[in-house]
C-alpha cells in the first residue's frame, strides 16, 4: 500500500504544470525571484555578483541567462524578465511604435537604461599557415586596424564589394593585383621588420568575415562593431547605402565568403573555432575573450591591434593611445517602484563594479556615475533613481515627466537617455 501511494503521488506531481512547481518552490523557500536575461557580454559580471549578492541576501533567488541583447530588450519590455541585459543602445529596438517596437511598454513601465561598465570589442583572427613571429612581430600586433583601413575593413564585413580602395597604401603600386580582402592590407604598418616570407603569406591569404545574423538591430556585439570604433570620424558614415543596410538588417552581401553566426558570442565563437580556416576574422567581446584566453593561445589565434597598439582594457578610456573600440554594459529595468528588489540589486552592481576587471571589462569612473545620477553625493548614495540619466552627450530629460513621449519622433535621439560612449572620448 505504501508503495502504491508513493507511486501515485509521483505520477500526480509529474502532471503539475512547471510554472506551478516553480511557484510552489519560491513560496516554500520564501525567496523573491529576479530573472536577468540578455547580452552574453553583460552576463559574466551580473552572474558573478549575483552569487555574492545571494550569499548576503538569503531571501533573493537570482537567475542570469544569455540569449543576446535583442532578446534581453524584448523580454524586459514584455514583462517576461525583471532585468534585461544589453550591450547596445536599445533605442533602435524600442522607438518604433506598434508591433515593430516596444515604445508603449517602455512608457507604461518606466523602463530605464543604466550603464554598469564598459567592454572592449576584439577582432580575433586565424593567421596564415606557416606564419612566424620575431621580436618585432607577435600574434597580437601583426594585424592592425587604423584610420586608413577601417572603412575598407567594414566594407569587407558587409559582404558587398563596392567602393574599396587601397591606393592610399604606400605599397599599392607593386601590389595592385592583390584581392580586396587580402590580409596584407591589414598588416601593422608600424612594423618595419617582418620575418622572411610572412608578408607573402599575408598576401596569399584572404579575410573570411564572420558576422552576426540579424545585424546591429538584434546583436549588441554587431552594433558595437559598427558604431564602437571611436575614431575621430565614424567609418559607418563612409559606407554606401547598401553596406549600411547590410549591417543594420543582417542582409549581408555574398562577397568575400562571408559567414553568418548566431547572436551570442559563445555561438559565434563555436562556429568560428570549428571552421578553423586561415584568414577567418570574428568580432567578440573582451569579457568573452578574457574568459577564453587559454583557448585562443592554444589554437594560435591572434587579436588585431587597434591603431597599432595591442588590446589593453586598462586603456579603454584613453582618447589618445587606448584601445577605444568598446561598448556600454547596460541593464534595463522598470523604475516606477523605487523599493523593488531589482533596484536594490542594480545598486549593488554599481557599488561593486571592481569585479569588472576580473572579467576583462572596465568599471565606471566616479564622474561617470555622477553624470548618470546628477543627485549623487560622494559614497554609495545615488539619489533619486527616477531622475537619473544614462551616460551620453544628449539632452537630459527625466523618464517620468513625459517629455520623451510628447516629442516628435525625429527629435527622439536628442532626449533619449542611453549611453553610447563614455564621457571625454573623441567621437
In short:
With about 425 residues, this protein is α/β, with parallel strands linked by helices.
What is the topological layout?
Layout: H1 2-14, H2 18-29, E1 32-38, H3 43-56, E2 60-65, H4 69-77, E3 83-86, H5 91-94, H6 103-109, E4 111-125, E5 144-145, H7 150-158, H8 198-204, E6 208-212, H9 220-227, H10 241-249, E7 259-261, H11 265-275, E8 280-285, H12 286-299, E9 302-303, E10 305-306, E11 326-334, H13 341-351, H14 366-372, H15 412-415
Parallel strand pairs: 1-2, 1-3, 5-10, 6-7, 6-8
Antiparallel strand pairs: 3-11, 4-8, 4-9, 4-11
Query: H/E element string?
Result: HHEHEHEHHEEHHEHHEHEHEEEHHH
Q: Return the average pLDDT rounded to an integer.
A: 78
Strand content: 5-15%
Instruction: Point out poorly predicted stretches.
Output: 1-27, 386-427
Number of H- or I-type helical stretches? 15
The largest sheet, given as strand count, sense and whether it forms a barrel, is: 9 strands, mixed
Number of beta strands? 11
Structural description of this entry:
The protein is of the alpha/beta class and 427 residues long. The chain is 33% helix and 14% strand. The chain is built from 15 helices and 11 strands. The protein has helices at 2-14, 18-29, 43-56, 69-77, 91-94, 103-109, 150-158, 198-204, 220-227, 241-249, 265-275, 286-299, 341-351, 366-372, 412-415; strands spanning 32-38, 60-65, 83-86, 111-125, 144-145, 208-212, 259-261, 280-285, 302-303, 305-306, 326-334. The strands form 2 sheets. Strands 1, 2, 3, 4, 6, 7, 8, 9 and 11 form a 9-stranded mixed sheet that branches. Strands 5-10 form a two-stranded parallel sheet. Strand 1 (32-38), helix 3 and strand 2 form a beta-alpha-beta unit. The longest helix is centred in the N-terminal third of the chain and has 14 residues, at 43-56. The model is unreliable at 1-27 and 386-427 (pLDDT under 50).
Amino acid at each position: 500500500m505504501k508503495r502504491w501511494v508513493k507511486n501515485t503521488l509521483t505520477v500526480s506531481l509529474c502532471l503539475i504544470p512547471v510554472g506551478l512547481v516553480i511557484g510552489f518552490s519560491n513560496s516554500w523557500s520564501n525567496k523573491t525571484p529576479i530573472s536577468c536575461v540578455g547580452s552574453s557580454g553583460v552576463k559574466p559580471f551580473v552572474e558573478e555578483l549575483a552569487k555574492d549578492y545571494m550569499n548576503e541576501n538569503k531571501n533573493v533567488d537570482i537567475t542570469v541567462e544569455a540569449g543576446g541583447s535583442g532578446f534581453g530588450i524584448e523580454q524586459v519590455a514584455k514583462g517576461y524578465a525583471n532585468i534585461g541585459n544589453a550591450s547596445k543602445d536599445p533605442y533602435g529596438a524600442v522607438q518604433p511604435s506598434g508591433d515593430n517596437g516596444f515604445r508603449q511598454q517602455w512608457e507604461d513601465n518606466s523602463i530605464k537604461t543604466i550603464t554598469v561598465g564598459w567592454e572592449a570589442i576584439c577582432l580575433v583572427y586565424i593567421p596564415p599557415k606557416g606564419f612566424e613571429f620575431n621580436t618585432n612581430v607577435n600574434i597580437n600586433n601583426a594585424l592592425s586596424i587604423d584610420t586608413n583601413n577601417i572603412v575598407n575593413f567594414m566594407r569587407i564585413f558587409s559582404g558587398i564589394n563596392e567602393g574599396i580602395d587601397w591606393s592610399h597604401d604606400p605599397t599599392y603600386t607593386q601590389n595592385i593585383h592583390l584581392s580586396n580582402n587580402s590580409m596584407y592590407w591589414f598588416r601593422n604598418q608600424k612594423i618595419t621588420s617582418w620575418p622572411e616570407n610572412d608578408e607573402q603569406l599575408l598576401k596569399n591569404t584572404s579575410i573570411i568575415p564572420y558576422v552576426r545574423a540579424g545585424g546591429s538591430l538584434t546583436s549588441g556585439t554587431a552594433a558595437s562593431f559598427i558604431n564602437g570604433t571611436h575614431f575621430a570620424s565614424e567609418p559607418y558614415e563612409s559606407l554606401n547605402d547598401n553596406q549600411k543596410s547590410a549591417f543594420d538588417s543582417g542582409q549581408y552581401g555574398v562577397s568575400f565568403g562571408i559567414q553568418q553566426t548566431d547572436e551570442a558570442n559563445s555561438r559565434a565563437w563555436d562556429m568560428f573555432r570549428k571552421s578553423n580556416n586561415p584568414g577567418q576574422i570574428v568580432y567578440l567581446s573582451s569579457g568573452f575573450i578574457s574568459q577564453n584566453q587559454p583557448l585562443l593561445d592554444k589554437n594560435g589565434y591572434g587579436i588585431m591591434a587597434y591603431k597599432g597598439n595591442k588590446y589593453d582594457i586598462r586603456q579603454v578610456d584613453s582618447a589618445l593611445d587606448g584601445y577605444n573600440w568598446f561598448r556600454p554594459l547596460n541593464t534595463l529595468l522598470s523604475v516606477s517602484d523605487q523599493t523593488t528588489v531589482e533596484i536594490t540589486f542594480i545598486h549593488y552592481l554599481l557599488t561593486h563594479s571592481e569585479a569588472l576587471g576580473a572579467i576583462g571589462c572596465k568599471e565606471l569612473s566616479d564622474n561617470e556615475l555622477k553624470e548618470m545620477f546628477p543627485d549623487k553625493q560622494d559614497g554609495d548614495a545615488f539619489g533619486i533613481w527616477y531622475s537619473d540619466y544614462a551616460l551620453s552627450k544628449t539632452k537630459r530629460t527625466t523618464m517620468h515627466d513625459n517629455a520623451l513621449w510628447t516629442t516628435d519622433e525625429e527629435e527622439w535621439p536628442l532626449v533619449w537617455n542611453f549611453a553610447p560612449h563614455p564621457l571625454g572620448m573623441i567621437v
